[in-house]
Amino acid sequence: MIKLYQFHPSGNCYKVRLLLHQLGxxxxxxxxxxxxxxxxxLEFKAKNPIAKVPTVELEPGVFLAESNAIxxxxxxxxxxxxxxxxxxxxxxxxxxxxxxxxEPYVAVARAWIAFFGTPPGKERELEERIQKxxxxxxxxxxxxSKRPFFAGERYSLADITLYAYTHxxxxxxxxxxxxxxxxxxxxxxxxxxxxxxxxxxxxxxxR
Amino acid sequence: MIKLYQFHPSGNCYKVRLLLHQLGxxxxxxxxxxxxxxxxxLEFKAKNPIAKVPTVELEPGVFLAESNAIxxxxxxxxxxxxxxxxxxxxxxxxxxxxxxxxEPYVAVARAWIAFFGTPPGKERELEERIQKxxxxxxxxxxxxSKRPFFAGERYSLADITLYAYTHxxxxxxxxxxxxxxxxxxxxxxxxxxxxxxxxxxxxxxxR
Lengths: 207, 207
Prior knowledge:
2 copies of one chain form a homodimer. Chain A is of the alpha+beta class. The first copy, chain A, is 50% helix and 9% strand. Chain A has a 4-stranded mixed β-sheet with strand order 2-1-3-4. The N and C termini of chain A lie close together (9 Å). In chain A, 45% of the residues are buried. The A-B interface holds A 49-50, 58, 62, 64-70, 72-73, 76, 85-86, 88-90, 92-93, 95-97, 99-101, 103-104, 125, 139, 142-143 and B 49-50, 58, 62, 64-70, 72-73, 76, 85-86, 88-90, 92-93, 95-97, 99-101, 103-104, 125, 139, 142-143. Chains A, B: InterPro entries: Glutathione-S-Trfase_C-like (IPR010987), Glutathione-S-Trfase_C_sf (IPR036282), Glutathione_S-Trfase (IPR040079), Glutathione_S-Trfase_N (IPR004045), GST_C (IPR004046), Thioredoxin-like_sf (IPR036249).
């Protein structure tokens, strides 16, 4: 069975749980702590030299890392990837936007505020990250004012990717009241078949 | 003709020039400055709300952004994307690694040191970025000690992506002497048919 090495509250790990559940693919979750006893241990780096979760073990000894690449792997040939070439590239555009212009701000602010504490001396950096997080949310609001989902008319990996940290952005003290298009999109994402919440345990069918 | 909005010394823009040249796809380059007169102008944001270069105009009014998504768009169905499903996902893994764990450190250090100056008060942040850049180079060295290219036996988009800023990392004062596997890979990348250097002008055949 597929193993998902994960930290449950991580949005990057949640992306993978959500897609696997929506695809009906069973998996086993292996909770993995950050730091030198977990992702930074020599044992874990032998699985994934990038030393991060999520990491999936597809079959014994075969590993794949980077949340959005994992999503791609499992979604190939399914309706989660658009069949139109430009829409497919547009989907990837928003997935790269998420990793470069959204996650380092929205997710890191949440991680510091809600989970690990702001590292000493990083208070000003936190403010900068919140400011850049709002810039990413502004871009999302603009797009969602024009179309229902990021790649076009249909729910795709781009929506899973951007939903993961945006819907819990308030845990990083982002005020989402000012983003009506984003909040309406939350409802469209949550209305998809077999939706799973970030706090939901790994489904028993998938254990 | 395809238009590439770009800043010529940017590695992200170079990726697109290199692939288009290797594919023999003609394009016109439109130099675009950063900041409120360029990428942050309302006019440019109407093309790309993420407000960054590279941005390509595929046909009049149809834009695509994010360097690695642009590479994907043009490379679909070509030998630059592996036909094996796992190798394809592995290629994407390294492309997401590049945007999350490499570019913000290796490219930003170079941009500050070689082009724009380190922003006031960011001297300590620069040191942190250099440290994390070395961590990314360490990961690359480990991979390239095991296989000739990032996705496996063949040159792919992952190599274009990671070559772009790594081969000019010394402009960000990274010492590459300690990375023999990376330097040997530089030679393999440079030996590919129709290689283009970052300093090369847009090829006249492509003007």
